[in-house]
Amino acid sequence: MVGYKFCEKLRAQATEGEFEITVFGEEPWPAYDRVHLSAYFSGSTADELMMAPRSWYDENNIDLHTNEMIVKIDRDAKKVIAHTGHDYHYDKLVLATGSAAFVPPIDGVDKKGVFVYRTLEDLDAIINYSKKVKSAAVIGGGLLGLEAAKAVIDMELEAHVIEFAPRLMPRQLDSAGSATLQSKLEELGINIHLSKNTKKITGNGKITGMSFADNTHLNTEMLVISAGIKPRDELAKDAGLTTAPRGGIVVNEFLQTDDTDIYAIGEAASYQNMVYGLVAPGYEMATQVVNQLINTEVKPFTGFDMSTKLKLIGVDVGSFGDPFGEIEPSKPIVYENKNSGIYKRINVSMDGKRLLGGILVGDASAYNILLQMTQNNMPLPPEPEDLILGARGGKEAVGAGVESLPEEAQVCSCENVTKGAICSLIENDGVTKVDEIKSCTKAGTGCGGCMPMVNDLLKHQLKAMGKTVKNVICEHFDYSRQELLDIVKIKGIKTYNELLDQFGQGDGCEVCKPAVASILASTWNELITKQDTIQDTNDRYLANIQKGGTYSVVPRIPGGEITPEKLIVLGDVAKRYNLYTKITGGQRIDLFGARVDQLPDIWEELINAGFESGHAYGKSLRTIKSCVGSTWCRYGVQDSVSFAIEVEERYRGLRSPHKLKGAVSGCIRECAEAQSKDFGIIATEKGWNLYICGNGGSKPQHAQLLINDVDRETCLKYIDRFLMFYIRTAEPLTRTATWLNKLEGGMDYVRDVVVNDSLGIGEELEKEMAFMIDTYACEWKEVVNNPELRAKFKHFVNANEEDPSLKWKEMRGQKIPASWG
């Protein structure tokens, strides 16, 4: 992250052509966001975590080398040597090598199922292994460890946190704050084990448990070590540069090493025996090195405030200034509410005039302003406890507010953006939106913790300029939605007319009526049909209106689980009322619990009824999902259902390196989610847009546009070519998304091959697909009609008995395997 920020700032400030920049990274990806790494477990993709795509480096004329590890620095020749044997000259060298996970010397740490939590590759390995286990432990109760614990929760595993110290987050929280945090985490189902010194990881080849120095033991099937970091200083050490006793490349106040042409920034650098493991100080280091290279004002790096605010598994935690009151004598003011899980502590100077630091757990909404008061020595209110308790007894709040901040106050520490810079933008450049502030200053693009203050500054400055700042719902109510919600609650208002009469004007409109209806429903949870005239059409009739004025009936089927009896009811209703019937989502019905000897008999009945194999068991085409398209939907511009059926019947049974899924959407509203499939087709007024190489799953990736506005025949031709080219060139068990990511030239190359026929194999690929289509046969039909094949479906080779080990139990009216509990 710090290396990327250095590149960004140098390119933004240096004149064009002034510097040639070459970047080396040993990982396969460009720089990515380690601060939000745990989001990977809740759906974020590698692409979404990237600081910038590869194309950004090309656009900024930066030579990016991924998968290339520098193994030696030749200071005399001013060269770096890569693991490939290639060497590269430098004039100035910036070491932004970051850190690696610290792994304690524990007996058995090399066992299978033990992981560190540091890179995307680590995370992929954790996700894959988690599918085989039910419990996981995390060594480390600090910031990193609790982030790893969140990942364990996201993977729906039994979670344990092991901490050597007697409290969680010992560097940021005192005992009471830590106890509050612990209570919150335990409510979420995380088991906390404090004062635990792990002596041995047990298990025969793979982890089955952990033994501690106090002779206690914990059974666990997986372990994530997140116990701290160690600077990656080995390159510098081998090159003869000084490193600190506890690790890190020693730098001076200008971030220079012993060699004035070599700088170190970020977690790799050690300044006065201090390694800074947060993003903000790393970005500040990058800024100061850039300033030196372009000969602008250089501000020596003399250390950095390590205050931090984050949300740990849904719990706000903040620590700022001197949190423990250890640097100078102070008087703590503490508020603790064990019922709501809130703990606040501020440390006030002995003369009662300055705020020195504090701790916030459960409610960190005041963090930004308290941090600014600490950093800028702002005067305290007459009653300092107001800072954490708020004004009481009808008094107005005194003191803390953005208006009292000095111009030089640092609002965004990640990007070093001051209050003065933001206010100048608003006042002199006419900026009126938060997004514009982010775009111009980069404030809020790092950890995002400063955004509440940026919002407050914008509102305050606009008001100071005489501009009205009011977020009203519409012209009929001079209130925001949040204010109306409060009014409805406090005044006990139950109807739209009552609210309009007391707090509105006019007769209302299509904006405020549904909004108020939503507020009333959210507040009182009454039947919305009681006030049907203020609902939009869908809510009024409890159904989606479709093309032609008819409505769809969509019963809820939680989890897709449905009994045979309910299936029959759906069929009877559809038949009685002559309804068009369509299965949604993956467009399949799963039938579980068949014995192997029953399969041919089951399939014989299905085939006689017109069904055929869906290939859910094969690395082949699974489904082509579709919406109802122009047949029914009032937004549809093409017949997506007919096209989806044609596409599925065209490619059914097509075997490939991995499973294939497709979709056809009848308009750009994308109800079939075509852009999350291996190939997706989206209707336009002129024809069809074709997207390829997307997938869902644990690492979702959007498909990319291959061609737009083509007719049906052309679309099918390009799908033929794409699929056959993929089948030809992909490695086993490689989804199309991964295949594209690894393919040299990426989408441009695929487009050249498929659309432009740059290899001259287009006709050949089409003929190969035509053969696959012409020779298709249902595998299950073949088995059913072939006695020799059919005879293979039995549990015992030498007997026709059924499997005696199968045991069942009932869940929600259906059978499930007893062993699944």
UniProtKB/TrEMBL annotation:
Nitrite/Sulfite reductase ferredoxin-like domain segment(s): 546-607
PROSITE patterns associated with the record: NIR_SIR
Domain NADH-rubredoxin oxidoreductase C-terminal as annotated: residue spans: 307-375
Required cofactor names: siroheme; [2Fe-2S] cluster; [4Fe-4S] cluster; FAD
Pathway the protein contributes to: Nitrogen metabolism; nitrate reduction (assimilation)
Top-level division of the source organism's lineage: Bacteria
Pfam annotation, one family: NIR_SIR_ferr
Protein keywords: 2Fe-2S, 4Fe-4S, FAD, Flavoprotein, Heme, Iron, Iron-sulfur, Metal-binding, Nitrate assimilation, Oxidoreductase
Domain named FAD/NAD(P)-binding: residues: 3-273
Sequence ranges assigned to domain BFD-like [2Fe-2S]-binding in this UniProt record: 411-459
Domain Nitrite/sulphite reductase 4Fe-4S as annotated: residue spans: 618-753
UniProt key word Ligase: no
Signal peptide: none
Family assignment from sequence similarity: Belongs to the nitrite and sulfite reductase 4Fe-4S domain family.
Descriptive protein name: Nitrite reductase large subunit
Organism of this sequence: Echinicola rosea
